[in-house]
Amino acid sequence: MANTKSAEKRNRQAQKRRARNTAVRTTVKNAVKKARENLTSKDGAKSADAVKEATRTLAKAASKGVLHPRTASRRISRLAKAAAKSAAKAQ
To answer: Which CATH architecture has domain 19-90?
Structure first.
């Protein structure tokens, strides 16, 4: 338990940050999951949009400090690689 006013404030700030980070992480996970599911389907336009949205979400999370930049970059790279493989398979 916080004993000083400043410690109480830091605790409140940490709780706000934790809630915001959790929400962003959930959004990222859902976007990536949606992109992966669309890549397995045959609809190329839909999967391209989903990958684009997931990439945007990952980049935004990295820029806000929720995800480490290299983690976001790695995930974006893997999504792009999967998208390219899916597009090549469709042809």
So the answer is: Up-down Bundle (1.20)
